[in-house]
Amino acid sequence: MLTPIWHEIVIGLIAFGALYLVMSRVLIPRLEKVYAERTDRIEGGFERAEQARAEAGRVQAEYRTRIGEARDDATRIRDTARQEGQQRADEVLANARDESARIVAEGREELANQRSAVSSDLQPDVARLSRQLAGRLLGREVGDDEYGETVDQYLERV
Predict the structure, then answer these.
(1) Domain contains 133
(2) Residue 140 in 3-state DSSP?
(3) For the chain, which terminal residue's Cβ has fewer other Cβ atoms within 10 angstroms, N or C?
(4) Residue 46 maps to a domain
C-alpha cells in the first residue's frame, strides 16, 4: 500500500498556494488585461472599420453628387456655347448676306452708270454711222433735218 509522506504533501500544498497566489494576483490580471485590450482592439477595429465604411460611403455619395453637378455644368456650358456659336454663325451669315446684297446693288448701279455712259458716248457715233449708211443706201447724202425726222419716226414706232 502507498503511504503518503506528509511533509512533501504540506510543502507541495504550500508551493501550490504560493504559485496560486502569484498567478491569481500578478499573472492572471495581466493576462485578463491583455485579453481585454485585445478584445477592445478587435471590437474597436470593427467599430472603426464601420465608421470608415460609413465615411467612405458618405465621401462616395458626395463624390457622385459633385460628379453629377460637374456633368450638369459641363452640359450647360456646352449648350450655352452651342447657342452662342449658332447666334454668331447667324450674325455672320446675315452680315454676309447684307454685304452681298450691297455689293450686288453697287454692281448693278455701276453697270447702269457704265451702260448710260457707253450709250451717251456711242450716241454721236451711231448717229454719224446711221447717216452714212442711209446716204449709201439712198445713194445721196442725208441732211440733218431729214435725219432728225427719220429718227423721230423710228423712236415713235419703238
Answers:
(1) yes
(2) coil
(3) N
(4) yes
pLDDT tens column, 41-80: 888 888 888 999 999 999 999 999 999 999 999 999 999 9
Burial class (CB in 10 A: 0-12, 13-18, 19+), 109: exposed
What secondary structure does DSSP assign to the chain, as a single string?
-----HHHHHHHHHHHHHHHHHIIIIIHHHHHHHHHHHHHHHHHHHHHHHHHHHHHHHHHHHHHHHHHHHHHHHHHHHHHHHHHHHHHHHHHHHHHHHHHHHHHHHHHHHHHHHHHHHHHHHHHHHHHHHHHHHHHHHTSPPPHHHHHHHHHHHHHH-
Domain that holds residue 115: 40-157
Residue 24 lies in a domain: no
Residue 72 lies in a domain: yes
- The answer to whether 123 and 139 have CB atoms below 8 angstroms apart is no
What is the pTM for the complete model shown? 0.43
Rounded Cα–Cα distance for residues 132 and 119 (Å): 19
Domain count, the chain: 1
List, for residues 77-133, the tens digit of each pLDDT value. 999 999 999 999 999 999 999 999 999 999 999 998 988 888 777 777 777 777 777
